Structure formats: structure tokens, C-alpha cells
């Protein structure tokens, strides 16, 4: 039972015999793209467009949470041919976001334990040479970032559910040498609590994602205090009020936490952010709303445009009006930005990382990996995998491909729920999952650096 294993890595390489689609296998489009876990396998590609989405309530809203099984002794994540996975660590309470320090150490947010762990791997392998708790006594830590950018950061920033703090840092430290300094406080923390952070390429801007406080603003109220007309004149397009004020947004600050502002609105729950190296654009992956049916609305990954409104709670995936807010905001009709890459509804994307390494085949260069935590509001289970978003010349094609599957045991149980993805300095892909509390190192070929 992996749940009871120690924090030490289990140095057993799981060579994967996953199968990919043949090169001439068509991309699943339209209704064919709306499958479930039984159709998932490495290489399956999907392309979902806004016009493919069914109308709301075509199916009933399902409550179908997965039972959590112990990781089977012979469990093997499925990967494309030539790839393999090794287990770095197990028995962690709640491994979430993983970020790679410039020196190669892996920093992992152990959210339920309220701490950030650090792992230093033996070169060319998955076994930790050293590990430790970098910082404890946090409050549901999630996002992690190093500052300033470059090879010699002086700070580790950590996003709690209700604040951003930073710790003094020198390369190679396994434990913070000083206590936390609060950079941003009074972040609303109820309901969606996963706060991610990222720095702009020039290091001048600290981005923060703040998810909504509800499914679809049920308690926000129909009108803000002072009236809608006054509110609209003083706030960014699509800004919410009342219990949702300052939520479903991406915000920006100076590195010291000053000069806060809203970058974009209507992002129901942007649970993972990163910078696209090829363009310098901020990207996020978003958990959309529930209770409209199995296949609506799509989850998505998107570049975050300055001043854009992405629809929540009044619209979704462009100009689709949520029937629960029918007629409330005609002034916003046609003004919601359509996201870049749509994924199956209720897949629960939690983190994104662009592939910048050299160890994977050339066709992976510039693509992005997204961890899908898995569905609950769907009759037939979906998600529970890591997918690859395809890019061409720095632009998304809209297609995404199953990359790491095999976490589902049966229609009722899963052993793994992917959360974090990061590219190690040697080009390996690091994946965390919080079902059985494990961390994996995915390599191509012999995996040596």
C-alpha cells in the first residue's frame, strides 16, 4: 500500500509499454472528442471547438466523485513508446504544485500538511540524495516562484490560500534560513483556494490567480451596491462584486506586493499559471463551472490577455450565456474572450508547464503539459491524466493529446489524481498526484542526463 510508504524514494524504474496512435489516426473532433477514461491512452488526440459544445442541460448534472484506491503494487502509468516513469517519493499528504529551482532542486507544495518540501535528486535518476521541509506553518500553500529570475534567486515566494509570503533563499538550501515575509495579504480564501503565482519574464510583475468563491456566483447578488451602471464605470470589464469581489481574476503586483491591479476577469478558477518561453505570454488553466451537463462548458488553457474578460459567471467559452444568469448582463454580450485550447468539461486542469528541455523528441519542443485532476460532475469519468497541448510556431493548434494515463482502476475508483507538472533541468518531466501522494520522474530513452 503506497499510502503507507516512507517519504524516501522507491528506486524502481517502471518501464512503460504504453501505446500511441498510429500517425494516420484521425484527431477526435466534435461529439467524438467527448469520451471518458475508457478511451484514454497515450497518443489519443482531441480537438474541441466552441461550436462543438452542446446546449446546457442536455444531460443531467451528475455527482460522481471517484473512490480512492490504494496504488496497486504493479501500477504503471501509461506513456508513449520510449518513455518511462520512476517513482521519486510516496506517502506525501497532499503534493500539489512542483517547481524547479535554478540549481535543480524540486520544491513541492504539500498543501494539507501546510508545508513546502524540497527534493534533490541523484543525477540521472529519481532517487533523492537529500530532502527536507523548506518551510512549514503555512496555510494551504500552492504556487511557488523564485525571485529574482536567473541562476541566483534570493527569495522563494509561496502562495497561501489567503496571502503571498516569501522566504530568504540561497541556492541549495533545504530549509529556509528565515521566517516568512508577507507580500500580499487579505486574499479571499473560501471555496476555491488554489492560488498560483508567476513572475513576468522581466521580473517586474508578480501574477496571482484568485478563483471564484462559488460555482456560479449564487450569492453575489443581482446588483452591486450603488448600482450596476456606477460599478461598470469604475471597474474592469466583467469585474464581480459582493461575495465575489476580487475573485475569478488574475491580479498583478510589483515584486514587493505593491501596486496591485486586475489583469483579467471572468476566469472561474485559474488553478495553474506559467509563462510561455517562446512568447513571454502568461498562460493559465481554468476549471469552468458545474451543473450544466456532462460536456458543457469546456475546461480550458489560455494565454491571459491584458484587460480581457473570459465570461464567468454570466457567459462561457465566448458568447454562450449561462441560463442561470439569463438577461442579467446584456452589456457583456459578445465581449467575452474565447480561450485558446478547450478540453473536456469537468476534467479539472490544475497545472501547466511548457516543455523547454532537450531530452524528449524534437516534436515536444514548445508544447505544454497540463495535469488533469479528474471529474466529479460527470456521468462518465474523465480526466485523471496528463495531456500535451500542441503548438506550432509558438501558437496553439487547439489539439491536445493524452500523454500519461493509467490512474483509473475502474469506473468507480482511481489511484492517482495528477496535479503538478514541471520540467527538470535535465529535461525530465516531473509529475505530482495527490490520490496516493506520489511524485514521478518521466524520461525518454535511458533517462540519463
What does this structure look like?
The protein is an all-beta fold. 2% of the residues lie in helices and 34% in strands. The protein has one domain (2-444): TolB, C-terminal domain (Neuraminidase). It contains one helix and 31 strands. The longest helix has 7 residues, at 228-234. The protein is globular.
Strand order of the largest sheet: 2-3-27-26-25-24
CATH fold label: Neuraminidase
Number of helices: 1
Amino- and carboxy-terminal Cα gap? 31 Å
The chain-level mean pLDDT equals 93
The CATH architecture is 6 Propeller
Structural class of the helix and strand makeup? mainly beta
Spans of at least 5 consecutive residues with low confidence: 1-23
What is the alpha-carbon Rg in Å?
A: 21 Å
Approximate strand percentage: 25-35%
Looking at this structure, what is the CATH superfamily?
A: TolB, C-terminal domain
Overall shape: globular
In short, what is this structure?
With 449 residues, the protein is mainly beta. The chain has one helix and 31 strands. The strands form eight sheets. Strands 2-3-27-26-25-24 form a six-stranded mixed β-sheet, with no helix packed on it. A five-stranded antiparallel β-sheet has the order 1-5-31-30-29, with no helix packed on it.
Q: Strands, helices and their partners?
A:
Elements: E1 13-15, E2 28-29, E3 45-47, E4 67-68, E5 83-89, E6 95-100, E7 106-110, E8 115-121, E9 128-135, E10 144-147, E11 155-159, E12 164-168, E13 181-184, E14 197-199, E15 206-210, H1 228-234, E16 249-253, E17 261-265, E18 270-275, E19 282-286, E20 299-303, E21 315-316, E22 320-321, E23 341-343, E24 349-354, E25 368-372, E26 385-392, E27 395-404, E28 413-414, E29 418-423, E30 429-433, E31 438-444
Parallel strand pairs: 2-3, 4-28
Antiparallel strand pairs: 1-5, 3-27, 5-31, 6-7, 7-8, 8-9, 10-11, 11-12, 12-13, 14-15, 15-16, 16-17, 18-19, 19-20, 20-23, 21-22, 24-25, 25-26, 26-27, 29-30, 30-31
Amino acid at each position: 500500500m503506497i499510502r503507507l510508504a516512507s517519504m524516501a524514494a522507491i528506486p524502481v524504474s517502471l518501464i512503460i509499454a504504453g501505446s500511441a496512435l498510429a500517425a494516420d489516426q484521425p484527431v477526435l473532433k466534435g461529439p467524438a472528442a467527448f469520451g471518458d477514461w475508457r478511451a484514454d491512452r497515450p497518443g489519443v488526440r482531441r480537438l474541441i471547438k466552441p461550436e462543438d459544445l452542446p446546449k446546457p442541460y442536455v444531460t443531467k448534472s451528475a455527482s460522481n466523485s471517484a473512490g480512492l484506491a490504494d496504488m496497486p503494487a504493479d501500477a504503471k502509468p501509461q506513456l508513449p513508446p520510449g518513455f518511462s516513469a520512476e517513482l521519486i517519493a510516496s506517502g506525501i499528504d497532499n503534493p500539489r504544485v512542483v517547481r524547479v529551482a535554478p540549481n535543480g532542486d524540486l520544491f513541492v507544495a504539500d498543501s494539507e500538511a501546510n508545508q513546502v518540501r524540497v527534493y534533490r535528486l541523484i543525477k540521472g535518476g529519481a532517487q533523492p540524495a537529500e530532502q527536507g521541509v523548506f518551510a512549514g506553518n503555512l496555510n494551504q500553500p500552492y504556487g511557488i516562484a523564485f525571485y529574482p529570475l536567473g541562476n541566483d534567486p534570493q527569495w522563494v515566494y509561496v502562495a497561501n490560500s489567503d496571502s503571498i509570503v516569501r522566504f530568504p533563499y540561497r541556492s541549495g538550501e533545504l530549509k529556509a534560513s528565515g521566517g516568512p515575509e508577507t507580500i500580499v495579504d487579505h486574499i479571499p480564501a473560501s471555496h476555491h483556494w488554489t492560488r498560483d503565482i508567476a513572475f513576468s519574464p522581466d521580473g517586474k510583475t508578480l501574477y496571482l490567480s484568485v478563483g471564484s468563491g462559488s460555482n456560479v456566483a449564487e450569492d453575489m447578488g443581482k446588483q452591486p451596491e450603488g448600482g450596476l451602471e456606477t460599478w461598470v464605470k469604475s471597474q474592469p470589464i466583467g469585474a464581480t462584486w459582493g461575495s465575489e469581489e476580487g475573485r475569478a481574476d488574475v491580479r498583478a503586483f510589483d515584486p514587493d506586493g505593491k501596486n496591485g491591479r486586475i489583469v483579467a476577469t471572468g476566469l472561474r478558477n485559474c488553478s495553474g499559471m506559467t509563462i510561455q518561453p517562446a512568447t513571454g505570454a502568461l498562460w493559465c488553466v481554468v476549471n469552468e463551472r458545474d451543473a450544466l451537463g456532462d460536456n458543457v462548458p469546456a475546461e480550458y488553457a489560455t494565454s491571459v490577455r491584458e484587460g480581457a474578460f473570459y465570461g464567468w459567471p454570466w457567459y462561457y467559452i465566448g458568447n454562450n450565456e449561462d441560463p442561470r444568469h439569463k438577461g442579467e448582463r446584456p452589456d457583456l454580450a459578445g465581449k467575452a474572450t474565447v480561450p485558446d485550447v478547450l478540453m473536456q468539461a469537468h476534467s479539472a486542469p490544475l497545472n501547466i508547464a511548457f516543455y523547454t528541455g532537450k531530452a524528449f523528441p524534437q516534436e515536444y519542443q514548445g508544447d505544454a503539459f497540463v495535469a488533469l485532476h479528474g471529474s466529479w460532475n460527470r456521468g462518465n469519468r474523465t480526466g485523471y491524466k496528463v495531456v500535451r497541448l500542441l503548438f506550432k510556431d509558438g501558437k496553439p493548434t487547439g489539439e491536445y493529446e493524452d500523454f500519461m494515463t493509467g490512474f483509473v482502476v475502474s469506473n468507480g475508483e482511481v489511484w492517482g489524481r495528477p496535479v503538478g507538472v514541471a520540467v527538470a533541468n535535465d529535461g525530465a518531466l516531473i509529475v505530482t498526484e495527490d490520490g496516493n501522494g506520489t511524485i514521478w520522474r518521466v524520461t525518454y530513452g535511458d533517462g540519463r542526463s
